[in-house]
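New to this. Please check this fold:
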Amino acid sequence: MTVPSPATGVRPLLAGQSVALVHEWFGATGGSEQVFLSVAELLPHAERFVLWKDDDATVEHDLRESWLSKTPLRRSKALALPLMPLTWRTLTRDRYDVVISSSHAFAHTVKLGDSPETRYLSYVHSPARYVWSPELDQRGAQPLLAPMRKALQAGERRLSRHVHSYAANSREVQGRIRRYWDRDARVINPPVDVDFFANAPNVVKQQGRDYLLGVGRWISYKRFDLMLEIAAEARLPLVLAGSGPEEAALRRQAERMDVPITFEIRPTKERLRELYWGAMCLLYPGHEDFGMIPVEAQACRTPVVGLGRGGLLETVTSGETGFLVDANEPIRYLDPIRRLPEISSDAVRTNAQRFTAEAFRARVAAWLLEECGADA
């Protein structure tokens, strides 16, 4: 299939139809934002809606923000959460032929205009973990929040009945959609810039791999605290790259350790590539929905050692491109780390090629054409 692109002069997908793309809040570009922007490349004529755009977010496309963006609630996702379903029903009265949502909270409940002919498609990064899976995300686990979770769950099911087709970013999320919403979904893995990460930077070509690496947003369910414990057990240096609300707690924990710990705050994409190429392995002990970071690491020939749950079951072949551990106890990670020399770096890099941006765009294009018909 030829994937339309504005740069090629090929007529874009759904060119004869009015299209709206909607996304939750637009933050500093992470995995969900990358998906949204990749779909936008296929549909350059589409209008783009978000709840709000964070102050530190940079994006070349025009984004139409909701009325929530004009309130203090934009600074507190927790307080804004109960209003999100209403917001997705009051964005605009404009009518569209196709509405495509990029959803990790309530964006899939969006309804624009009142035409029964509108086709609604939703790409789901995960049903909101703090609403549906508090055992995976402790932000929603407090007993006092249980009544609110139940109300949000019931409302979400009711307000999403109009969605014609779902796509999930992984088999893990496909299962959650079936379990929580009683809906089917096809799997379309998100796009990873494999070519960029596979190109070794000159600064590291002559360096050895001599530290463990953790990458991502420093929040509880991603288990950066456990990465520190693993490094202490393994007696190896650890680099933590990213940022997030747990930074102070992680620094306090690191001060009590007698192995070198380095914090890389908000590294650039180029710096992140250097860190991948210099690492013995990527530690990934969280239960993730898909996880683009392990694919980026593998593109750099860096094996992954992580928890054998969720997305890692799709992106890592245990014993070939890394090792999957069946329990999150620091001592269980020691033997896989010792066995890293058994891993073929060529096999690691080859595995990453399954998740290129080109593969993503081709699968999305096939989905759109199947669900919305040939270009008008």
Q: What stands out?
A: The longest helix spans residues 357-372.
